[in-house]
Amino acid sequence: MRTLILGPQGSGKGTQAKLIASSHALPHVATGDILRAAVAEGTELGRQVQPILERGDLVPDELMVGLIRERLASEDGFVLDGFPRTVPQAEALDAMLDEIGKPLDAVLLLEVSDEVALERMLGRREEEGRSDDSPEVMRNRLRLYHEVTEPVVERYRELGLVVSVDGERAVEEVAREIDEALASVGASQP
Ligand code: AMP
Known about the structure:
Blueprint: E1 2-6, H1 13-23, E2 28-30, H2 31-41, H3 44-55, H4 61-72, E3 78-81, H5 87-99, E4 106-111, H6 114-128, H7 135-158, E5 162-166, H8 171-184
Parallel strand pairs: 1-3, 1-4, 2-3, 4-5
Helix pairs in contact: 1-8, 2-3, 4-5, 6-7
Bound molecules: adenosine monophosphate.
Adenosine monophosphate (AMP) binds near residues 59 and 85.
């Protein structure tokens, strides 16, 4: 199964992506995690992206597409979390998957209001002390979600791939609805 999960920061997409990955035995490919690990390890990529992450801005498409191309090259199935975040990234992903004849099965959209997203980001910041989550950076990330990532949702909606899920409910309820949705789009096979 090839699926991706879209939604603003604070929508719970990381949590849900991990649950799907473990219940379907799929790799959870989270671009934010990959970038934060690169920063922590002090690699060349990490040095390049650190200031971008600190501002809550987006890493250039070219860099992200290269990274994902490499990461997905040997995977048959995956749960993609945090990518694509721009229309050019989505176009590159679709072209990549078309080339190998392995299109996406479903695009999950976790819907939450800005108020709930901000509240959850603030809570997470207190728990984890994430430096990329200052209130100013959070607002920047939400603004970019609306301006740059929502057109990606529209693209996949037009292709009939989007399954919307109300992300404001409890983790287990959201997870149950996602499981049902994935089963009903026939995406439960490997
Ligand atoms: P996340 O954990 O998914 O919220 O990602 C953390 C940060 O990594 C984002 O605020 C961006 O700076 C960067 N990032 C992650 N994925 C992407 C992407 N697909 N395109 C551009 N920047 C990204």
